[in-house]
Write a structure and sequence with these properties.
Helices cover about 45% and strands about 10% of the residues. It is mainly alpha-helical. It has one domain.
Length: about 80
């Protein structure tokens, strides 16, 4: 979240993608927002005026991802 806040102050648009194989950036954001609100953390302050777009897809949604992960695993053995 700190990086998103920082870039939202410097850019007109921020596109957030997830590097986790099975989780989209949107699902990670939704979980983080829920946890922050439960802890009483202010989730509104510190952002710039940029439009922030969270990816709706995870890497597993792309057919090549499992192949690449499998190849990487094979090379690591």
């Amino acid at each position: 979240m700190p990086a998103v806040k920082d870039y939202s102050k410097k850019s007109k648009k921020v596109f957030v993608i997830s590097i986790y194989t099975t989780r989209s950036a949107q699902s990670l954001y939704d979980n983080a927002l829920k946890a922050a609100k439960e802890k009483g953390i202010n989730t509104e302050e510190g952002f710039g005026k940029a439009e922030i777009i969270y990816s709706q897809n995870s890497l597993i949604d792309y057919p090549q991802t499992p192949k690449i992960v499998l190849e990487f695993a094979k090379k690591s053995l």
